[in-house]
What we know:
By secondary structure, this protein is of the alpha+beta class. The protein has 2 domains: 5-131, Rossmann fold; 136-341, no CATH class. The protein has helices spanning 5-18, 37-49, 85-92, 107-114, 126-131, 136-150, 243-253, 290-294; strands spanning 26-31, 53-58, 96-99, 118-121, 154-159, 164-168, 175-177, 187-189, 194-197, 205-210, 215-216, 221-222, 227-232, 235-241, 263-269, 299-303, 319-323, 326-330, 333-337, 340-341. An 8-stranded antiparallel beta sheet has the order 14-13-10-6-5-18-19-20, with helices on one face. It has a 5-stranded parallel beta sheet with strand order 2-1-3-4-8, sandwiched between helices. It is globular and about 55 Å long.
Amino acid sequence: MPVSDFEMINAWEQVLKLSKLEPGQSVTILTSSATHPQTLSSALIATQSMGAIVNRLDLPPVNAEKALSRDSLAWLGTTPLTGNNAAIAALKESDLVLDLMTLLFSPEQHDILRSGTKILLAVEPPEVLVRMIPNEADRKRVLAACELIKGAKEMRAVSDAGTDIRFELGDFPAIGEYGYVDEPGRWDHWPSGFALTWPNERSANGHLVIDRGDILLPQKRYAVEPVHITIENGYATSIEGGLDADLLREYMATFNDPEAYAFSHIGWGLQPRANWTTLGLYDREATIGMDARAFEGNFLFSFGPNNEAGGDRTTTCHIDIPLRNCTVLLDDTEVVRKGKVLDGK
């Protein structure tokens, strides 16, 4: 359903207030050819109406010759900011950057954040943004889950489909995404709503089953038959099954990088306004799949880089896969039981 300009401006104002935007602060809106025009126009109006000093920085797209899809997460690492010192300097001088193009997992993004600049990513369609406007309750719920992760030494995920995998924890931080940036140097993504961490290097061992109805985000596809993945010492060593397994295995092989098979972040969805079914209602190029990543009770795991958490793995392959109906345990205490979050919400 289309969103009115009034609704989008109001949504931006709510998010910007949560992000503590003050009159006189500098905001740079980062755009590219794929930026949604209504998201941009409403962001320009909302930031100016709140008294900010607003700039727009439009940069050309990159990686077309490398990526197999037009998705902004299809090839990571190189961005329009790579080697662009003038643009980086402008962003560092900003109090807030609204990223409407996607800088995720780039060294330039980390450099900008270290300067104290806040970065908020917003690239989903306007109707998704409006449906999942963040609030303080989202923040409290996500941070409470992060505290549970911080206190744990092991995460385990199991399911009736056959998933049974363990991860040692403690070497990487717990990170919460709740949809706004309320502290200097914070990055977040509107919309979102999940808690995550990274397993200690080479500690992941077990078996993953992508069951019928689980989501393969590289293909933005619901699995139609089980995919069995063996994990040994932090790496996927076999991917077996039917067509879905073939698609995943061959896609990962195109990166020609053994680090593409390394375990990346792990965690669970906490956003009650996200919906598992939404991906099936959109053209594949219209969304990056944040409903799939954030829907309440999923077990979200990924392969690829860990530099976002301070690690040194910067492979260009990044794959997120949310599983339904899993039980997630921290030190043998259930936090999600068969797809239901056990926090009383």
